[in-house]
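Blinded run. Sample ID left blank on purpose so nobody reads anything into the name before looking at the predicted structure. Input follows.
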Amino acid sequence: MGRSGLTWYGFYGETSMTATRATRTRTASAEAPPVPLAIEGYSVLHQMMRFKWSAWRQLRPAHKAEIAEETADILNAWEQNTSGQSALYSVLGHKGDLMFVHFRRSFEELNADEMQLANLRLSDYLEITTSYLSVIELGLYESSLKTYGDLIEKGIEPHSEEWKCALNETLERQREAMHPRLFPDIPPNKYICFYPMDRRRGEDKNWYTLPIEERARQMNEHGLVGRRYAGVVKQIITGSIGFDDWEWGVDLFADDPLVFKKLIYEMRFDEVSAIYALFGTFYVGVRCSWCNLGKLLSGEVPR
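Blinded prediction complete.
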C-alpha cells in the first residue's frame, strides 16, 4: 500500500506465521536467541507544550499576526518536507495545549528542528511540559523464527560471522520490502491519540521470560484485532528502549476519535495486553495545519 494509504502497523510487523513454520522452529527454540529481529525507520519526537495565553493576549494584533505568519511559514515547510514531516495538534484537556510530532531521518535532524522551533518568536509563549523520543519500529517475529530455525538446522552457530551475515541479509530484504511503512508520511487524519507503553515486568508475569514462539503467537493474535480496524485507523509504532522512559510509543490516527476508545478497549482483552501491557499517559489532539495556525492562536478550534 502507498505512503498515504490507511493501514494497520502493529508490533507484529508481518503476516501471521504458518503452522508449518511454527512447528519447524519450535524444535530449535532452546538454541534460538530470545530477541526478535526488528527494522527501524524515521526518528520521531513528540513535543507537548502549554501556551502562555495571558502573555499572548497582551500583544498588539499586528505583532500577533507577524509571529503567527513566521511560525506558519516554518510549519508549512515541515508539512511539505519529503524526507520527514512535522505536524501540529491542539491537545484536549489539562495535559497541554499543543503537540508537535516530528518524523526525521536522524536524531540530528530532530535536534535541528528543536532548535529552529526554540528560536521562533512564538517560543516565548510556549512552555514544554514533556516530550517523547523514539524511532519507527517493525518487529519481525515471523522472519526471526524462520531464519533462526533455518540456520540452526544447517548447524550454523548462533552469533557466529556466518549467522550474522544471514541475519543481515534478512534485515536488508525486509527493509526494502517495508520501506513505505518505515518512512511514512504523517497521516492527514483529523485526530491523533498518542501514548507510551511497556510490556509488563513483575514478580509473576514477565514478558521477556516467555519463549520467542509464545511471544510471536501472542503478538500475532494482538495484530489480528488491529487489522479489523484497517481503513478506519492508522497506527504507527515507535521503539524507545534506551531513548525514553517507556519501551514503545503508539500513535493512532483517525477521523473519528471514538475509534480510539473502541480499538484500545477491544485490545485490552487479548492475551498480550491483558497480562503484559502497561500504559502511560494518553494525549489526544486535533490536527492544525499551517494555514489554520492563525485561527488557533486566536482561540478558534482548527477545522
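Unblinding after everyone has recorded impressions. The radius of gyration is 21 Å.
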